[in-house]
Amino acid sequence: MFAKFFSAPKRSFNSLNEREILALAISSEEDDGRVYLAYADALRQDYPASARVFEEMAAEEDHHRGMLIDMYRQRFGERIPLIRREHVEGFYARKPVWLTQKLPLEDIRRQAASMEDEAYNFYMAAAARAQDAGTRKLLGDLAAEEKKHGQVAYDLEGQHLHSEAVEEEGATAKRKFLLTYVQPGLAGLMDGSVSTLAPIFAAAFATQDTWQTFLIGLSASIGAGISMGFTEALSDDGRLSGRGSPIRRGFACGIMTAIGGLGHALPYLIPHFWTATLLAGVIVFIELWAIAYIQNRYMETPFWRAATQVVLGGGLVLAAGVLIGHA
User: Fold this and answer.
1) Which of 64, 106, 290, 327 has its C-alpha lying 20 to 30 A from 283's C-alpha?
2) How many CB atoms lie within 10 A of CB 17?
3) How far, in Å, CA of 135 to CA of 68, rounded?
4) Helices 105-129 & 48-76 angle (0-180, nearest 10)
């Protein structure tokens, strides 16, 4: 809200003359070309076929820029005024590339399609205001090219993204998702669910005080979440292993660790001891089978092997906690 009042003043689009409209179009094509090249650089390692698509789209933008500069030179000479889209009121703006280049592949493709739609709308509005016949024709032609640029992108994808490339890129995207989110999250959920069983149930049976048990469970869960999150984030920067952003992995691991412990700590907010303990036991049962399902669904671990490992291990830890609490 305050940015609206304290930001630098902007020109309205209707106040621009043809010289300024051409200058704005030139700078916009330059910016879009840079965005496409940045997308290509970001995708090249994991999605080389898509990177080639964006390189060719950048070449298209550079061709448009050359046409606009030729028209500007013909009408107004060699000096092009500096006017950019952020200088014009109500004009569409691009997010900084460093905020968008880490987006998933499909999101990048959708943003590229949105860019072409916005460019088409700009050229249509600019052509409607142009008085010079040559300028009006050029702007109209560019609007038509931007309109079909989505088809050009589709054609380029058809050229570069053959079925094997699409399958390979899909497998790469799945692998990155597994390594960045599923694997750290699963490790956290397993640690949080299993490692907190013994202290929570030992405290429960030793004190039979639900509030004290809840506080112990809460501290164990939050502490384990922080510890696991930092451990995951600091263990590997992801550059060589391809495991993705350490910050994302750390958050996934830390949050799931805390959730795993809190699942069977929260029932002890119930003041009746046996009601809280029975509910906590049911939640533990659900947590352990959920972990086995995730291992089977995403890590392709045979279900019964995953169930045996997780449920048996969790059951032993739970039994240890109960025995220690009764000691």
Assistant:
1) 327
2) 11
3) 9
4) 20
Q: Which residues contact 298 (CB under 8 A, 6 or more apart)?
A: 178, 182, 186
List, in order, residues 6 or more apart from 132 with CB less than 8 Å away.
18, 75
Residue 136 domain boundaries: 2-161
Give the end of a domain, one of 126, 141, 161: 161
Q: Which amino acid is at 133?
A: A
Whether 60 and 149 map to the same domain: the answer is yes
Please give the backbone phi and psi of residue 144, each rounded to the nearest 5 degrees, phi first: -65, -40
CA distances in angstroms from 89 to 35, 52, 62, 84, listed in the order given: 22, 34, 25, 11
CA–CA distance from 261 to each of 153, 196, 202, 207, 286 (Å)? 48, 6, 14, 19, 13
As averages over each run of 10 residues, the pLDDT of the chain (327 residues) reads 50 85 90 87 79 86 91 91 79 60 67 77 86 88 77 51 54 69 81 81 86 90 87 70 75 88 88 90 84 76 72 73 71
Which of residues 138, 161, 184 is at a domain's end?
161
